[in-house]
Amino acid sequence: MILWLTTFAFSIASALLPFLPIEVYIVGAGAASPGAAEAISLGIAAGAGATVGKIVWYEIARRGVDSRWAQKKLSSPKIRAGYERWVERTQGRPVYAASIMFIAASVGIPPLLVMAAVGGILKMPMWIFVPTVFVGRSLRFSLLFLGVDFALH
Questions:
Q1: pLDDT digit string (tens) for 89-106?
Q2: Is 58 left (phi over 0), alpha (psi -120 to 50) or beta?
Q3: Which residue of 15, 25, 29, 138 is surrounded by the most CB atoms within 10 Å?
Q4: Prediction pTM value
Q5: Cα–Cα distance for residue pair 71/4, rounded to 1 Å
Q6: What residues contact residue 116 under an 8 Å CB cut-off, 6+ apart?
Q7: φ, ψ dihedrals at 66, nearest 5°
């Protein structure tokens, strides 16, 4: 239980602070976890923590887009055009938005930190953002934990 809670807490910190890579933690924690069932459980804990951390970035961006500074940036024609292009692509297309977010969450390309902010700026519905990030991150981290378990045992 301690390893599960530590994994959850570290993954929140890692999601908030990009200089704390969760993958390095997973290698160390994965060496201490006996078996595939615990590896999957730890992957889910890491996915849940990462989701909590990315919600913070999402909310910062969602609330910040209406700020005076952001509106000044959006007054640039080039930036405004890019913003409107993304809004056009994602608004009313939840499957498209969820697909991009899932790829970022599970593969890491584009980086999830950036995509969490983009999701907030575009005001992606939370009912799409949260489960997509949770499932993508849990899958990624479970596979990493399983890989460490397989390599060491």
A1: 777 788 888 999 999 999
A2: alpha
A3: 15
A4: 0.88
A5: 42
A6: 54, 55, 57, 58, 61, 129, 133
A7: -90, 0
